[in-house]
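ok new one. same drill as before - structure tokens go in, u give me an amino acid for every spot. 102 of them this time. try not to just spam alanines like last time pls lmao
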């Protein structure tokens, strides 16, 4: 793989250069802060995407929210299939198991 330096080129120039190199059989990898280059599909894969800390934290927060929603949906489905127990029964068993007074 050849390494080509693109000092302060505009995004379109970077994408155009990558496309020309890829069409000549070069393996093209980009290190970019611009999500539009990779999201456009013009370049098949970015070697790395650099994000600021705030954007990265928003991404992580969204991922955690989606995982929580998926777990809640799974729990609802399991309960509807008879795999769970009513909340008051669960609390009663919890209190009994850990000797928690009423």
């Amino acid at each position: 793989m050849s390494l080509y330096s693109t000092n302060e080129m505009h995004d379109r120039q970077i994408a155009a250069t990558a496309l020309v190199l890829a069409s000549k059989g070069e393996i093209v990898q980009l290190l970019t802060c611009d999500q539009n280059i990779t999201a456009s599909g013009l370049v098949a894969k970015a070697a790395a995407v650099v994000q600021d800390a705030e954007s990265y934290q928003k991404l992580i927060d969204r991922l955690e929210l989606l995982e929580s929603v998926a777990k809640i949906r799974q729990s609802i489905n399991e309960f509807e299939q008879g795999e769970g127990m009513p909340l008051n029964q669960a609390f009663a068993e919890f209190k009994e198991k850990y000797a928690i007074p009423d």
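The chain is about 55% helix and 5% strand. and btw The CA atoms of residues 95 and 102 lie 8 Å apart.
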